[in-house]
Structure prediction request, 297 residues.
Amino acid sequence: MFDEFIVAKAKEILQVENVEIVHRLLGGMSNYTYVIKADDKLYTFRILGEFAEKFVNRELEKENIKLFEQLNVTNKTIYLDVETGIKIAEYIEGTSLNQLTEDEYPFEKVVQKLKIVHNSNLKAQNDYNPFNRLQTYEQYLIDVNFVHPEKYNQLKKEFFKYKPYLDSIPKVLCHGDSQPSNFVLTQDGDVVIVDFEFTGNNDLIYDIACFGNINFSSAKKLLQYYFSDNLDDDKEIRLYLWRIFQCFQWYNVAEFKDMYGLSEKLKIDFKAVANKYLQNIENLMNEFNSKQFFQKK
Prediction:
């Protein structure tokens, strides 16, 4: 699809004569990322997907990459054009965690890297602003006459009772999309964090909740590893609530992609993805309520 463009652009940016595409990396809902070889060195080459500009600020992404590079928890970005979103980075030899089973996840290594970020005292130029972000994503749908289902509205009303509580949590530098696909287990057993499109200052438990994108059990386990000596109800409450919020957020993104015809174009049933997120919201709310956290206080 983009082969000739990628080869030509990589030659121009990297100032090399020989470029070949090795393969495309699968995963993600927003972009196309390829592994390329340029003069015998491997890189990743990212091209933005359709409408990606509605969800990501590339100038902030570029600044946030610098923060994570400063912490030595990620690979080196060689080039990022904030206008086109084209990004070239050094390729990491390893395995993305979403290709492993949960039992194979290096939880201790993931915690180690996240704690470096969360305890760094560095701050992004931007807060993640989850609730403003959700309102923006909802408005994208409203603008094209999408009507949120009654179930969504009822669940949102119930969830928003906890907004003041979540708004009160101190903010630190967070990855913002720390799902398993954004961690790479290297050949020497280290873990590298990638993809900083959603980075901002937030509650650190937001990052732990993101790790439950495939299975919420992974987020629960990561929480236990992260707070092995001081896990309490407050942290578990935040884990549930942020994961529920994330399902609201990605529900709207999936509906948006379906409304704009990307299900057919990309051969991904985004309507089914959206329905799954909506069901996850309901299931997580039921599980959260059954624990009666606030009745214990």
User: Anything to note?
Assistant: The first helix runs from residue 3 to 14. Strands lie at 19-25, 31-38, 41-48, 77-80, 87-90, 94-96, 172-174, 183-186, 191-193, 200-202. The first strand starts at residue 19 and ends at 25. The CA atoms of residues 14 and 294 lie 56 Å apart.
